[in-house]
Design a protein that fits this description.
The chain is mainly β and 152 residues long. It contains one helix and twelve strands. It has a six-stranded antiparallel β-sheet with strand order 3-4-5-12-7-10. A four-stranded antiparallel β-sheet has the order 6-11-8-9, with no helix packed on it. Strand 8 and strand 9 form a beta hairpin. The radius of gyration is 21 Å and the shape is globular.
Length: 152
């Protein structure tokens, strides 16, 4: 990454000169196939995966499976963008799960009831609950999904 480190401006000529410094990230993301036991940072752009709507949902989504390679880490922390027309198919949960809406709008079906969701809404679905989510409008519906991995 290149960051400007020195800025000198001339009021007379109305120009600025920048000196640039290269700065390496503290911990770059490891290759997807290698388990990791260290603490690290991942960038969404490095882990993006195009996928169909999960649970037999419709359309196209982009999944960002953060820390999928973290050895011994029992939490799934995933961002998912549902592109226009996409959905997460209705399914019955086998675990507790949270959806947190970052942006966009959607229609949530939770245990037979439908309601719209948008930025700032958090949804808790309990083990045995039935739910699904459909993107609405022209903007991607982007959510964070969090749940505990099943025991090995």
């Amino acid at each position: 990454m290149i960051l400007p480190s020195i800025r000198r401006c001339s009021a007379v000529a109305s120009t600025c000169v920048f000196a640039a410094t290269a700065i390496a990230p503290a911990h770059a993301a490891a290759p997807a196939s290698k388990p990791r036991s260290d603490s690290y940072v991942e960038q969404a752009r490095d882990i993006a995966q195009a996928q169909p709507g999960p649970h037999e949902g419709e359309g196209r989504t982009t999944a960002y499976p953060f820390f999928a390679q973290a050895e011994g880490f029992d939490i799934v922390f995933r961002q998912r963008s549902l592109h226009p027309g996409a959905s997460i198919g209705e399914h019955t949960n086998d675990k507790d799960e949270i959806y947190y809406v970052l942006s966009g709008r959607g229609e949530l079906m939770l245990d037979g009831r439908r309601r719209q969701v948008g930025p700032g809404d958090a949804v808790l679905t309990r083990n045995g609950s039935r739910h699904g989510l459909r993107q609405l409008g022209d903007e991607d519906l982007t959510i964070i999904v969090v749940y505990r991995k099943p025991a090995p």
